[in-house]
Amino acid sequence: MANVMQYRDWYFRGWRSRYGFRRSRNSDHTKPPILLIHGFGAAIDHWRGNIPALAENHTVYAIDLLGFGNSEKPPTRYSIHMWVEQVFQFWQKFIKVPMVIIGNSIGSLVAAIAASHHPEIASSVVVISLPDIAAFNDMVPKALQPIERTVKAIVSAVLVKPLFHLIRQPFTIRLVLKGIVYCDRRRVDNELVEIIAKPARDRQAAEAFLRLNRSINQPNYSPSLTQALEQLQAPLLILWGSSDRLIPPSEGKRLVKYAPNATLMYLEGMGHCAHDDNPERVNHEILTWLT
């Protein structure tokens, strides 16, 4: 892959965080900058098929969320709150004007919450397969939630690290991407597998993975997505692969009702990572919507 980004490090809460940027090829300063936020287990380069097209007329930034990619993987308590603060501080330091925030999966949840809690940062928001983690947790009856969290904590402590050493293997990554995540299996190439596998080889990765799994089961892991959507001032585009096997596409129809200025679009024959499953189509829909 051609090196489409320039990469730099900055420090968030004292931890090293990786970001990339690519200046717009055209000098139209009326076009807002774009910030890309990856999903769980991914990294900046997962936007490999999107950055060149988006950077034709927009300066594009992308970040590795703390705990992922080439950012540091500290043994801390991870949460959507923390990543929202990382996005906000990044915007304050490097961008400072309203931007288009585009996220996939957990990155789309961070994008929506950040734009809602800090309206000054967002001119518009694009989310691709938006998970409502609080809604998933609420499906467990309240009386059983403490028991469920205890069981998950025990399982996590015993199994997650050994399991991590299995799932970070390239053959496992390839199997999961082809079998569950992607519709176009041709996109699951050596480059993609390395994008996922390389950060998992970091010395701190196993402990961070354990902390991430432990955190996601906590009741205060994420602010309310539905409340954030109700308060969101920026226009919102919800993109959803019609063949998403990780989050039911029907979630899009439920969530769009909460956002007063939202558009929902289903992408036929695409999976959970539609932006990399069919980047040409996704780039076209985003750029058309932005104009």
Describe what this molecule looks like in 3D.
This protein has an eight-stranded mixed β-sheet with strand order 1-2-4-3-5-6-7-8, with helices on both faces. The chain is of the alpha/beta class and 291 residues long. It is built from twelve helices and eight strands. It has helices at residues 51-54, 80-95, 106-117, 133-138, 145-167, 170-181, 190-200, 205-216, 225-231, 250-255, 274-277, 279-290; strands at 6-12, 15-22, 34-37, 60-63, 99-104, 122-128, 236-241, 262-267. Strand 3 (34-37), helix 1 and strand 4 (60-63) form a beta-alpha-beta unit. The two termini are 29 Å apart. Helix 2 crosses helix 3 (106-117) and helix 5 packs antiparallel against helix 8 (205-216). The protein is 43% helix and 16% strand. The longest helix is centred in the middle third of the chain and has 23 residues, at 145-167.
- Helix content class: 40-55%
Number of strands: 8
Biggest beta-sheet profile: 8 strands, mixed
User: How many whole angstroms does the radius of gyration measure?
Assistant: 18 Å
Mean pLDDT: 88
Strand content: 15-25%
Structural class: alpha/beta
Note the total helix count: 12
The topology string of helices and strands comes to: EEEHEHEHEHHHHHHEHEHH
Q: What is the molecular shape?
A: globular
The unreliable regions are: 143-161
Amino- and carboxy-terminal Cα gap? 29 Å
Major sheet: arrangement of strands: 1-2-4-3-5-6-7-8
